[in-house]
Amino acid sequence: MTRITIIRHGSTSWNKQGRMQGSTDIPLDEEGIEQARKLGARLAAEQNWDIIFTSHLSRAKRTGEIIAEATGLSPVLTDERLREVSGGQTEGTVEEDRIAKWGPDWRQLDLGIEKPDAVHERGVAFMKDLLQEHAGKRILVVSHGSFIRHMLRHLTPDFVLTEHLKNTAVSRFVVEDTKWSCDLYNCTTHLDLGSF
Hints:
It comes from Chitinophaga sancti. The chain is α/β, with parallel strands linked by helices. The chain has helices at residues 13-17, 30-46, 58-71, 95-102, 116-133, 145-155; strands at residues 2-8, 51-54, 76-78, 138-143, 170-176, 179-187. It has one domain: Rossmann fold, CATH 3.40.50.1240. 37% of the residues lie in helices and 18% in strands.
């Protein structure tokens, strides 16, 4: 049995502005750094972890580094396959910009946005390698909201994703053979005042 905890990175200024981030390398803002610190304290108190992987984009990597400092994990391993879904021409824009430029049906246009099949292909390849190389371990993976949602729809098709993933949200999975089961989704109790 392998335990994988998947985490969305802390907040950024573009999150707050509603800007499409995609593969643009936007850093954590001050709140995002504090969110990661609170999450690090939570994870350190929960159990011992064996390994941590993050996207190479700085908002995820810095979140992972803060967690690693709190939990004593070293080194932080990065993998480009964990990057956010590319937004193509939409990166840096807000919804109002997209409607003004391409109309209300902009999602139907070919604007260079990464296709779901391409996201699944790289994500599944990462998870397959992870499970082969680190079977039976307790693993932390820090990535991005759209990438995580795409992967969960693919890996846990019976699990209904009812909520938008929050910054530093924790989602826990147990993998036995090739079956993924989720026992915690989109949890941010560490952000509550007085927690940890």
